[in-house]
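haha ok so turns out i had the wrong file open the whole time. this is the CORRECT one, sorry everyone. sequence first:
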Amino acid sequence: MVKYVGPGFGEEKVKEANTPIELYIMFLPHDLTLYLTSYPEEVEFFDEDGHSGQTFEPYGIERQRVESHLTSEYDRVRVTFDNILREMSLYVNSRFLKGNRLLIWKVFKDRLESFDDKIVMYDGIMDHPVIDQYTMQVTVISKLERLEEELPRRLYTYNCPWTFGDSDTCGVSVPVITGTVEEVSPDGLTINSSAIEQETDYWRYGEITIADEARFVRHSGNHEVEVDMYFFSTVEGLEFELRAGCSRVYGDSDFGCDRWNNQDYFGGFRSVPNESVRV
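then structure:
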């Protein structure tokens, strides 16, 4: 595939000496985007939409060469991030990374005035990360083969793949309430509000959104919900929206299809064959 570069990039590339910089844009759920660079200082460049003034924060990042194949195997690249921020571990533990896009640009330090003065080094979808005490490694797979439209499709699994409450695939009108955050626990995982009056675990598997940040609800009780990951901003005193959820299991009368009387829309498989060996 031919890659377009601006004239400034081409001029800088042929110089005897220059300072190349790689920029990483990580697209996460709920409109959360991380702008990182492997350069040891902040870099001011453009965002993915061409808006100027975007700051890329310095972070310990290494990447391997892009693995290209002449066969039908997808191209891929492995990127390693230093595991020095608590947030990075939380992204992994909260299943934020897999299936989301990572865009890698190369620019030059002396050519940051034009959006065209960059080259796309890689644009792909992140797979399962591997994390230890010091680093997090993620394999990024080419998204060139992905369709622009998300087609209805299912995996051979017990769990329903449809988006809960989706008008095209799910028959449930999702319960929603709003209120004000009155108190947050010291660890940031429990949100308290007098507006939450439903029975225990009514909101389990649901989602709470505060100030454009959304979190998965692990448990709900009297005037509180427990989330899987703390909010990055201060949320006490802010308005929230709380949506019910589903376990996506057919016979689950507590949290699944049976609870919502939605069996006709179940998109999983009620039985999945498995192989057993008798000796």
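The first strand starts at residue 20 and ends at 28.
again sry for the mixup
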